[in-house]
Amino acid sequence: MKTASLIELENISKTYPGSLVPAVDDLSLAIPLNARFGLLGPNGAGKTTTINILCGLLQYDNGHIRINGMSLERKYRKIRRMIGLVPQDIALYESLTARENLRFIGEMYGLKGKALRHRINESLEKVGLTQHAGKAVKAFSGGMKRRINLVAGILHEPEILILDEPTSGVDVQSRSLILQLLFELNEKGTTIIYTSHYLEEAEELCNHIAIIDAGQVIIKGETAGIITGHPGCNDLESVFLHLTGRKLRD
Amino acid sequence: MQKLKTSIIKELLVLTRDVAGLAILFIMPVVLIFVMALIQDTTFRKMDETRLTVLFIDEDRSDVGAAIERGLLDSEMISLEKTWNGKPLDQETLISLVAGGQYQFGIIIPEGLTGKINLKAGYFVDKALEDPDYPVAEPPEEFSPLIIYFDPVISHSYRESIRGALGKLTYGIESRMIFDLFAQKVSELLDVEDVMIYDPEGIIGIKEMSVRNRHTEVIPNSVQHNVPAWAVFAIFFILIPLTGNIIRERNTGSMLRIRLMPGSYWVTIMAKILVYLLISVIQFVLMLMVGVFLLPLLGLPVLELGGQIPAILLMVVATGLAATGYGLALGSIAGTHEQAASFGSVSVIILAAIGGIWVPVFAMPPMMQKISVISPLNWGLEGFYAIFLRGGGIMDVLPWVALLITFCLLSMLVAFYFLNKRKN
What is the signed CA dihedral for A155, A156, A160, A164, rounded to 10 degrees? Predict the structure, then answer.
């Protein structure tokens, strides 16, 4: 039986060893199926920690996580196949070519032969890197690296795609292409969880958001509703500043 | 299996495109072998200044045994060890200590040697002064010779020095006995005293044995030492590219992605171990080829491999596993590649120095000899010594293999602890 929300985080807490302050503090979220969900917050808010917990890459101290009705802890082997991750860093082997990187990732997900070649060619074409498939990733520009980093996360056609600042430091053209690709994936049924400091971009992409600070959820809901629910704020950035303040974060 | 194959191919691609890493793995040790083999004379000359400790068992417990002992001690180059672990040495212990490389020489003076030499000397004298009325008794049967056990790590010339010195000693003692008996008989026949005066200085010239001058000819030992020594060193230096590989994967997020792939994390670690193990084998073969084909071109002796290929392979695998384990541990502990590379390289150089890579352990001061046993590089080197120099097989290298595998397992436990800790 499927739940109303694809992903449910209930009272998740995480304090890193040696730290007195929790990185995530009693955080609860519900992410609907096929949502484009923005997880937003200032530096040190707990976004990356939440993403790593959600991917099963970081142990949490308290709480429960259910994905598609399954406990993350109990059904991790099954769940992680559903997840595609695009980390903040370019998680690729720089000395390998784009095609070699994708072949490695595809084969590790069990793809092989013609099906894998087709997926690689199709993905490279979508992000405009077909002609650069044989070049080492270290020779790529920042935008090209971001695009191939995204392809590496979607090669196995995950049901849930988690992106940690996927457009950080890229040019306008690459950013536009990445966002377009995310819309296309979402239209085909992929639930997208996205973090970024580019709030204009988040407002354009995300139909649901949660703003977190100091490891706690400040607000969550539909993007449009949150903006209209704050009189005097005409966009997501003004809502964000209104809720998190203008104090600089380290 | 497919994932392991994929991971191995990926590791090989990453490694083969790391030019600096390849240089460290293959060119650096070859250069070191050339340089160290060529300057070996200097290194081995230092051995001359080291007092040689010889295991010594006197089963004769009489004049000849005592005279040989005195003669050896008078040489000033030799000290004698007559006990082990507080107990008098026995033959079995002596052989195992020399066979194990802890001592270079062992000498056993057989039981009853004095009496038998006396009998033989008496026979010669009686024969020379034979009286038809008193027929000479039959000569005594052949008796047990004086036995010298030696470690093959010692050069041929050094061995000959010791053997020659002992030969002179025994010859002198034997001559003196004959002279004494002869003098006694002649004195009796002529009814006079002190017919002949024997001058021991003229015959027993133990101070003339000149061990030091002869054992500088240690060229075979230099090749036999330097090739396995720097091969072991090179194998341990794989930790530089290995730690770099682990830390880069962690810091770029690739490891996060790999951990998210079903059943891929441990496969990736296993692939690293297998690939770096393969590199160890290739390195070792390359170093052996240098010893067999290239060093002779410089006028150095050919490296003799012996026929114990399975034992060599076992030692290479054990050494490679120890080095890989150490690399995994460092890669999981260090935060940056700079930390891992600097600590890793310095630690390997120190362990190499302690372990007898630079200067053979038996040429070190006693204190350093005791410390050398803590170095995994020493275990690797001693294992290869056992094969190349002592003709040992699998059974002979098992103690070193066991130590190296234990080190590997402990290092991997440390690695897995820190890898899991990072997950928390």
Answer: -40
User: What DSSP character marks residue B134?
Assistant: B
Question: Hey, of B256, B269, B421, which one would you mutate to test binding to chain A, going by the most A CBs within 10 A of its CB?
Answer: B256
- Averaged pLDDT, A121-147: 91
Average pLDDT over residues A152-167: 91
Give the pLDDT confidence score for residue B212 in this predicted structure. Answer: 30
The encoded tokens of residue A64 equal 């429960």
pLDDT of residue B175: 77
Of B2, B262, B424, the CB nearest to A77: B262
Q: How far is A51 from chain B (nearest CA, A)?
A: 11
Q: Is A55 on the interface with B (CB under 8 A)?
A: yes
- What's the whole-number mean pLDDT along residues A142-163? 91
Written as six digits, the tokens of A49 are 């920690």
- What is the residue whose two structure tokens read 């590649």? B337
CA–CA distance, A199 with A206 (Å, rounded to integer): 10
Give the burial string for B28-50 (b: 16+ CB within 10 Å, else e). ebbebbbebbeebeebbeebbee
Number of other residues whose CB lies within 10 A of the CB of residue B398: 16
Distance from CA of A109 to the nearest CA of B (A): 6
The residue in chain B having the minimum alpha-carbon distance to the alpha carbon of residue A51 is B256
Residue B198 confidence (pLDDT): 54
Enumerate the β-bridge partners of residue A71: A66
| HSE, side-chain direction, 13 A CA sphere, residue A202 | 29
If we measure between CA atoms, which residue out of B258, B257, B264 comes closest to residue A85? Answer: B257
Determine the distance in angstroms separating the CA of A165 from the nearest CA of chain B, rounded to an integer. 13
Write down the pLDDT at residue A117: 93
Query: How many contacts does A have with B, using Cβ atoms within 8 A?
Result: 79
Q: What is the spatial distance between Cα B410 and Cα B91, in angstroms, rounded to a whole number?
A: 37
- Tokens for A234, please give them: 């005409």
Across the range A210-218, mean pLDDT stands at 90
The CB density around residue B353, as the number of other CB atoms within 10 Å, is 16
Low-confidence ranges of chain B (pLDDT < 70): 40-51, 76, 130-144, 155, 157, 191-221, 423-424
Q: Does the distance separating the beta carbons of A105 and B261 come in below 8 Å?
A: yes
Q: Which two tokens stand for residue B180?
A: 């004494």
Residue B358: what residue type? Answer: W
Token match 């080829």: residue?
B289
Q: How many CA atoms lie within 13 A of B180 on its CB side?
A: 11
Phi, psi of A228, rounded to the nearest 5 degrees: -70, -20
Q: Above 0.90 for ipTM, yes or no?
A: no
Res A250: pLDDT: 64
Rounded CA separation A190/B337 (Å): 37
- Which of B18, B264, B423 is opposite residue A108, by nearest beta carbon? B264
Q: Which of B3, B252, B256 sits opposite A108 (nearest CB)?
A: B3
Asked if B252's CB is within 8 angstroms of A89's CB, the reply is yes
Reported pTM? 0.69
Question: Concatenated DSSP letters for A196-226?
Answer: -S-HHHHHHH-SEEEEEETTEEEEEEEHHHH
Q: How far lies A160's CA from each of A80, A86, A220, A246, in Å?
A: 9, 11, 19, 33
Confidence (pLDDT) at B203: 45
Q: Is residue A10's pLDDT more than 60?
A: yes
Note whether A136 contacts B423, CB cutoff 8 Å: no
The pLDDT of residue B30 is 86
Give the span between the Cα atoms of B217 and B134, in whole angstroms.
54
Contact A39, A51 (CB under 8 A): yes
Q: What integer pLDDT is reported at residue A118 of this predicted model?
A: 93
Express as a percent the part of chain B with pLDDT over 70.
85
